[in-house]
Every structure is written in structure tokens, then in C-alpha cells.
Amino acid sequence: MRKRVLFKRYGFTVIILAVVSVAMCYPQYFVSVGGFKLSGLIVPLLQVIMFGMGTELSLKDFAQVLRMPRGVIIGVVCHYSIMPLVGFGLARLFGFPPEIAAGIILVGCCPSGLASNVMSFLARANLALSVSVTTVSTLLAPFLTPLLMRLLAGSFIEVHWQAMVWDIMKMVIFPVVAGLLFHYLVRGRFRGLDKAMPIVSMAGIAIIIVVITAAGRDSLLKVGALLVVATLLHNSAGYFLGYWAGRLFGFPEKDCRTIALEVGMQNAGMASGLALGMGKLATVGLAPAVFGPMMNTTGSSLASWWHNRAPGDEEV
Q1: Which string of DSSP letters, residue by residue, matches 269-301?
Q2: Could you list the residue range(s) of the whole structural domain that residue 248 is in?
Q3: What is the pTM for the complete model shown?
Q4: Distance CA 144, CA 148 (A)
Q5: Which of 15, 142, 151, 289 could staple 168 via S-S, CB 3.0–4.6 A?
Q6: CATH code: domain of residue 84
Q7: 37 - beta bridge partners?
Q8: In the chain, how many domains are there?
Q9: Does residue 284 lie within any of the structural domains?
């Protein structure tokens, strides 16, 4: 697929769908190997992915926040209000078991990730704004994600606020800071490593998803169809409400596209790591496992549709 221009941007989506299918059919191969539980790979892989994100950042990205503060503030506020509240509403509406419902809320309470930056580029949106919103939402995650989880998911499961803060720090903030230091101290000296990081990140995401899917296969078979529907509604509502929030505040079309993608696309890998930290990978971790492939499919489709429609040609 990557050899054809028409299908190239869907290559990663197909890989994710393939690994999910394999994990559903042959889960026994992805639970443990030689007595080692493969779930132990999730946190290290997530740290590698976030390190890769850090290597792509620079101080110029932080300067962008000062150049477009209104867009960044609106984008971050929409992200941390729309997705958590929509997740809470869907969890109540569908009547899922408490731990699976908490997983839906957990996805909504996480920051956006690198995928939203890629989709913003493909959608001919405001890439600088996308990177800025992703960066700020990630840095705020240790404070806002545990707080929102306690407020919204506390009625479903017990939320250990301090433990969640520490998990986010070691899984997200420390690796991102290390990646930022790498960017300035080492980047460019090992060109092979620079080229390998995006591939390593994509492979890491695929492995995380296959491990979570295998661990939660039995629960997924019981609530799979409903969970897929709930996840699709969650993801789609993020795009729709994010886009029209941008319109409401008078942003140009490029910025509206950016806010839509930043709101609708979450760091599902981080949600999976937090579910593992809670010891509930097979239940709380199910929604992130479904949301990851879902957002890559819908995000790449939406970005491709926008790519063929120049922002200047649309009514602003």
C-alpha cells in the first residue's frame, strides 16, 4: 500500500487493523512468552514513543505558543472539556460495566498525541498550532488527567490521584524532556537513529495495541460491538464539536481543522499505560485499545478528504 500514492497515508491504519485482527484470533501468542508477561512491554514502549515525540520538539515550538496564544488556549480548553464530558456521557448512556466505562472516560481525559500532528499536516491545517496544542496538552496532563478522572470516573472505579500523576510523569513528561535534550545535544549526529525513530514509534504503537487486545479479548467479545459504536461516537463528536468550536470563536478554516483533529484524537497509548498502572489492562484498557485504531482510521480519512479541499476555497 505504501508504494501507491493513493493508499500510502492509509498504510499505518491497515497495520493497526491487521495486528488487532491477529490478536483477536490468536490471543495466546501475545499474552506471555516464556513466563514473561508481554504487558510489561507497554510502559517501556510508551516511553520510547514519547521520547520520539520529544526529539521532534524544539524551543521554537514553545515560542509558537506565545505567537498564537488564543488558538492554543481555545484548543487546549476544548480538548480537556469536550472529550472528557462526551466520554462521561457515553459511559452513562451505554451502561457499560464500571471498569470498561472508566476506560472510555480515561481516553477522553488524556492529551492529544503525535497522530494529530500528522493528520493536521495531511489535512492542510495549521501545523504550528497543532504542535503547540499537543505540546501544551501533554505538559498539562499530569495535573488535568488525574483531576478529571477523579471527578468523572470516581463513581465507576477508585482513582488513586497521586499514583496516576507519577505514572504520567514517568511515562510521558520525563521521556519528552529527555527527547528535547536529545534534540539539542545529539540530533543530527546519528542520522540513522533520526530516521529510525518514527518507525520505532509506529512499531511500538502496534505492539501496545496487540498486547492490550489479546489481554482483553474475552471482555471485548462481550461488549465489542457496543464499545466500537461508543468509541466511534466519542471520536466523531470530538471532530465535530472541535471544528464548530473553532467556527464559533471566529477562527479561519485552517485553524478549525486543527482544533477538530486536536480535540478528536487522543493519546490512546498513554491511556493504555495508565490502565496497566491501575492493574486493569483487560478492562479499563479496552477502550484505549479500540480508540487507537479507530482514530487512525477516521483521522486519516478526514485528513484525506480535507487535503483535496484547500482551506481558502471554503467559506470562512
Answers
A1: HHHHHHHHHTT-TTTTTHHHHHHHHHHHHHHHH
A2: 42-306
A3: 0.82
A4: 6
A5: 142
A6: 1.20.1530.20
A7: 32
A8: 1
A9: yes
